[in-house]
Amino acid sequence: MTDAIRELFELLAKKENTGSDYTGTVTRVEGSTAFVRFNGSDIDDTPVSLSIGAKEGDTVRVRVADGRAWLVGNDTAPPNDSSGVAYDLIRTNAYIRELTTENIRGENGWINLLNGTFDYGNGALSWNGDHLTVKGAITATSGKIGPWDIGATAIYKGSSTWGASSSGAAYFGDNGISITDKFKVDAAGALTATGATISGTLTAGANSKIGPWTVTSTSIYYGNSAYGNANGLYFGTSGLSLGSAFKVSAAGALTCTGANISGTITSTNATITGNITANAGSIGGFTIVNSANTGTTSAGGHCYTTALYTQCSDDTYEYEVGMKGGSGSPNYLAFYVGRITKGAAWSTNTKVFSVANNGKLTATNADISGKVTATSGKIGPWTLSSTQISNNDGSYETIIMPNSISMKVKNSTSGLSIAYDALLIGSSLGTTSVTSGIITLNSTDQAQVNVSRTSGRSGRLVANNNSFGLYDVESRSWVFRSGNDGNTYILGKLYCIGTEDSTGRQPIQSITTATGLVSYMSANTSALAVRGRWGASKGFTAKNFTPASSDIRIKSDINKSKVHALDLIRQIDICEFRKQGAYQPVGMIADWIEELDPLLTVGGGYEEDGAMNIKSVDTFYLMGYVVKAIQELADKVSRMGG
């Protein structure tokens, strides 16, 4: 590599150098890149930015600076080397890095030759085609910004005079701010706004004015600063007053002398105390009447002394709702709702709901929910009293009292009575002595209670001179019967639905109620388990009873035993101990025997409820060892000549 090429690559590896020019020959062109072989070098593929026109074989000059290389001249075709001419004519504060038909790019910015956009100083001054962006201070004492003129002390439009009356004039400067002469704020802060609409918060200092109104720290007043003064209007901490005739104090007390209120008064969630007196007009849709009208009037033909009412109608009916008072005809009526067929004449009795001055309530087709308290009167056919509700149609009588209900033939003791402690059916109704909780069916032959269902079985509870029990009407047979012979008969199977624990074991009752009570019995192929209280035990435990099953039909692969039973018998420890508090001089420990042969024991562990499953010795299985051991001893005795 020549010294010139080495210097080129050293310059390409550096940044921010002043740049150097080199001469070479273009070996090929690909897109915007020319590949150049520099003079004195045999390397022909050094890439260079095609910043000016060049083709293969042209002799060109290459500028290297800041780690980049680009064409700055074409010695073979000078007429086409317009960038070389531009380089001689255009100057920046450094060197032009790139010059194309579209862009001029220097060290501190660029200019786009096609659309006129530019950026100098890395955004300090830029133009994107629509907006000019300037970073830093702009100082000007003359010139224009759009329609605004720049002066030494102000910027203005239309007139350089603050507060000029000419149309469109605006001013912002040392004298203040103004938009014509209608809106002005002088340098001292005085505001003049003609025809202004102001929203938001307006704050005024003490003893300032808004038109004829004086503003203080506690009030706004006109004419006189005192609350309730006849010569002033006042709004402040003491209240609100219009002269002395209308006053609302800070406590909410209203004084209104000689007021005549008309129009609509709307109040949301208002609380009004004291008296409201009105002789005419309306409240909402209700008309106020204060005259002794008699006969037919526009109010619907009612006789009023005073009333508050409203009328409306639909396709079928006309309605009137109101409150009446005074003494006339009809009598004093506090509240009423009336309804007539549309077009018919109203009368004083046309009402579907009313409350009269004597407290009488009249309601047609009423649907009342909630508590109703009454000690007299009627509800439909039912007569009310302080102790009962009764209904008597001449033949039958029904009485509902706080502690009983009775239904019977009038003036008879035959019927049905439901008391708080008994149900009575029969001819001695009301005379039979009833023990609490007993249902008495009075009959000389047979008493029965029938239960019938539309879809399902029908049954009957029967009691007569021979039997007592449940009778199946469908099968015409007794389901359960207790006869005079002292026996109880059950038709079909008896199922015990209850369970002793979560395992589903069926409970049984032992024949005694002593401490040997049995809880359940369960069985499998090897043992019968009985759970109960045994002896002095206070809790329930289970015992396993092994069946002596030895039928050849349940055995297979039968051969003579080869076990040395005598050796196992010798290992069994016979012990004395106490078992559940009782001394036992001879016995075995199942857990020890289990170590000799696991089949010698049954049970062990715990039940699901945490109770012990008592481990026991399988004595029938142990008997096999005993017999085999005796045979082994007999053989020894025989061999000894015995």
Please provide a brief summary of the model:
This protein is mostly beta strands and 642 residues long.
What's the helix and strand layout?
Blueprint lengths: L2 H10 L7 E11 L2 E6 L7 E4 L9 E7 L2 E7 L7 H8 L6 E4 L3 E4 L2 E4 L5 E3 L4 E3 L4 E3 L9 E2 L2 E3 L3 E4 L12 E4 L2 E4 L3 E4 L4 E3 L14 E3 L2 E3 L3 E4 L10 E4 L2 E4 L3 E4 L4 E3 L25 E2 L2 E8 L10 E10 L3 E9 L7 E9 L11 E4 L4 E3 L14 E2 L2 E3 L4 E4 L3 E6 L2 E6 L5 E5 L3 E4 L12 E3 L5 E5 L7 E5 L3 E6 L4 E7 L4 E3 L27 E6 L4 E5 L8 E5 L19 H7 L3 E5 L2 E6 L2 H7 L4 E2 L13 E2 L1 H21 L3
Parallel strand pairs: 39-40
Antiparallel strand pairs: 1-2, 1-4, 2-3, 4-5, 6-7, 7-8, 8-9, 9-10, 10-11, 12-13, 13-14, 14-15, 15-16, 16-17, 17-18, 19-20, 20-21, 21-22, 22-23, 23-24, 24-25, 26-27, 27-28, 28-29, 29-30, 30-31, 31-32, 33-34, 34-35, 35-36, 36-37, 37-38, 38-39, 41-42, 42-43, 43-44, 44-45, 46-47, 47-48, 49-50, ...
Describe this structure in words.
There is one protein chain. The chain has 642 residues and is mainly beta. It has an eight-stranded mixed beta sheet, with no helix packed on it. Strands 12-13-14-15-16-17-18 form a seven-stranded antiparallel beta sheet, with no helix packed on it. A hairpin with a 3-residue loop joins strand 16 and strand 17. Helix 3 packs across helix 5. Residues 11-17, 79-94, 292-304, 428-437 and 511-516 have low confidence and may be disordered.
